[in-house]
Amino acid sequence: MRCRAMTKKSNASVSIRIRLDQKTLDLIDELAGANGRQRFIKDAILWKLDEELPPMLMELAEEIDQLKTRVEHLETEQSTSVYLDELNDLTKTKVCRDDLDRKLLAYFLQHEGATTPELALALTGSQGKRRTILDRLDKINERAKSILGVEIVMHRKGIIKGKRGAWWLVNKKQLV
């Protein structure tokens, strides 16, 4: 077998010369046609490479994806817990009913504002839970108004800081 580099600058391919017996060459011509030898041999080599490499590479890719997911989860949990610690006891126990309410307020402490689809995706994993988030925000505001005397978040319809129709933290001092 002999290899030589092609002189074309735009195409960095290498020409390979192989010796085949006549029986094999006839079989290739029969399957690929007389003018399709090169394409057939190239496809056969690529197919063979694809057949042998992917299992190992696929396992590595899956492990990397799992690690990315774990790291993202840990980063999210860590950032949420830092902001949850900032909430005062009155807010944690009286204004918030459960962990979802506390996570909502921690999200606002971290990001200042968000749309209901953003909140739903970040906290429940589905944008379809917008209504749940909206109901929670309304209830949090009702409890905050009766306990703290002020609303905590406010919905603004216009475009503010690149977000249209978003909820914004308005009384941070009451939360921390």
Write a concise keyword list for the protein shown above.
single chain; 176 residues; alpha+beta; Arc Repressor Mutant, subunit A; two-stranded antiparallel ribbon; 8 helices
Helix content, binned percent:
55-70%
- Could you name the ranges where pLDDT drops below 50 across 5 or more consecutive residues? none
Radius of gyration: 31 Å
Summed over residues and divided by their number, the pLDDT gives a mean of 81
Kindly report the name of the CATH homologous superfamily of the largest domain.
Winged helix-like DNA-binding domain superfamily/Winged helix DNA-binding domain
Oligomer: single chain
Shape: rod-shaped
The count of strands amounts to 5
**Number of distinct helices:** 8
Helix/strand order, N-terminal first: EEHHHHHEHHEEH
Beta-strand percentage?
5-15%
Q: In summary, what is this structure?
A:
By secondary structure, the protein is of the alpha+beta class. It has helices at residues 22-32, 37-52, 54-86, 89-95, 99-111, 116-124, 130-147, 172-175; strands at residues 2-5, 14-17, 113-114, 153-160, 163-169. The chain has 8 helices and 5 strands.
